[in-house]
Amino acid sequence: MSAPIVHGGGITEAAARFGGRFEDWLDLSTGINPRPVELPPVPQQAWHRLPDKLTIDGARAAAASYYRTNGIQPLPVPGTQSVIQLLPRLVPSGRGIAVFGPTYGEYARVLTAAGFAVDRVERAEDLGPNHGLCVVVNPNNPTGRAFQPAEILAVAATMKANGGVLVVDEAFGDLEPDFSVAGHVGADGNLIVFRSFGKFFGLAGLRLGFVIASDAVLEALREWLGPWAVSGPALVISRALMSADTGAIAAGILDRRAGLDAVLDHAGLKRIGGTGLFVLVEHPDAGALHRHLCEAQILTRKFDYEPRWLRIGLAPDAEGDRRLADALHQADALRRGDAWHPGDVLRPGEC
């Protein structure tokens, strides 16, 4: 197995290296709603008993409505990562893999470790007849590149003509429902859609995702995951939240994104991509900036394959924006050799 990928969220490790208490760190390294939604009531029975068919079916029906799946009942899974691990079982040996990239690294890692040749592609024209599986993250992480549904469906048609499967990861799709192809998945087609529950609702620790696919694929995944793969409380919580009005959640995320944009623009950082939940910036020495922010107990996401990039997530409030603004101003002052005084930049409410 290849070396594990370093993902965002490693506050414990960062604190051990750079100091400070865990609770004092500002984690901007993930693409998760920084304001977790209030949990709905969970009946004691959901904790006490294994999830029954009624509980599972209720969550699936709510997901079908929320993701607008046109009748297909999405399969609840213990996080999207759990089904990424299963993708090698869907591809005949000897076929190649195409991954639109750069993107979430677990796809290439898992498939390469399973013995498949993985090609990073950028255009539909790069797909070849040997590709048995294609992966598109839409909108993409970390670049934010987004394909229109017609473009995605054209790729699905190309893959089908070659006897292949298209996986579309819509983990960051909640804020961009018009980009989703969940409603185009056919009961006997070759299109598979992954959805993440925890990012938009700020509940990544729940470890919950959904798969929209043909009956045959859903049955295979259900069999491979085994019984009771998702906990009863997770099913109850997802059903309640996906059945409610999520407009206020989306508005809160966009408000926090506006705060981040203002900080980055004031600091003169070049925004080159992102989604509603994070921004990708380019900096000539992103590694040094990442270290400086860590010394200020602010964690961002750097990339070994592109040393000029940093992905910066949303702060939970204006005070978090101010902390980031102060640290970026200090970094620029140190770079230019100017004097710097804490607190001489943006105040809460100004960004």
What is the H level of CATH, i.e. the homologous superfamily of the largest domain?
Answer: Type I PLP-dependent aspartate aminotransferase-like (Major domain)
Number of helices: 12
Judging from the principal axes of the Cα atoms, what is the shape?
globular
Sketch the major β-sheet. 7 strands, mixed
* DSSP strand content: 15-25%
Structural Rg? 21 Å
Helix content: 25-40%
Number of separate strands: 13
Just name the CATH architecture of the largest domain. Answer: 3-Layer(aba) Sandwich
Q: Averaging pLDDT over every residue, what do you get?
A: 93
Number of domains: 2
Structural class: alpha/beta
Low-confidence stretches: 338-351
Order of helices and strands: HEHHEHEHEEHEEHEHHHEEHEEEH
State the end-to-end distance: 45 Å
- The third-level CATH topology of the largest domain is Aspartate Aminotransferase, domain 2
Tell me the name of the CATH class of the largest domain.
Alpha Beta
Biggest sheet strand line-up = 2-8-7-6-5-3-4
In short, what is this structure?
Helices cover 37% and strands 16% of the residues. It is an alpha/beta fold. It starts with 10 loop residues before the first helix and ends in a 15-residue tail after the last helix.
